[in-house]
Write a structure and sequence with these properties.
The radius of gyration is 13 Å and the shape is globular. It is mostly beta strands. The chain has no helices and 11 strands.
């Protein structure tokens, strides 16, 4: 079992930056691909980006490409989401998720473990 805890959310003005962290328990973190998802108010959950277990491969949704960066530190069992040039439409609850299969997937249903989420609000 893996437990994921997100932190770093908050209120920021448009154009600003935030860095989210996701701390994982357990000794197998380095074997999991990690994903970030978000749920905007009144909308369905959507894929934001993912990173392979090694950290060498990343993939982003078009809506965040060039603005968001995912990284990980396997020694600290932590994955990060650096968010720059934030827009009001980035307002959402952000979730990290772990994929035991280290698959190259954007499908939420294929992720095995989820954090509780952290709120990000971008004001205009």
């Amino acid at each position: 079992q893996v437990q994921l805890v997100e932190s770093g959310g908050g209120l920021v003005q448009a154009g600003g930056s935030l860095r989210l962290s996701c701390a994982a328990s357990g000794r197998t973190f380095s074997s999991y691909a990690m994903g970030w998802f978000r749920r905007p108010p009144g909308k369905e959950r959507e894929f934001v980006g993912r990173i392979s277990s090694s950290g060498r491969s990343t993939y982003y949704a078009d809506s965040v490409k060039g603005r968001f960066t995912i990284s990980r530190d396997n020694a600290k069992n932590t994955v990060y989401l650096q968010m720059n040039s934030l827009k009001p439409e980035d307002t959402a609850v952000y979730y990290c998720a772990a994929d035991r299969g280290n698959r190259d997937t954007i499908m939420a249903r294929l992720y095995d473990y989820w954090g509780q989420g952290t709120q990000v609000t971008v004001s205009s």
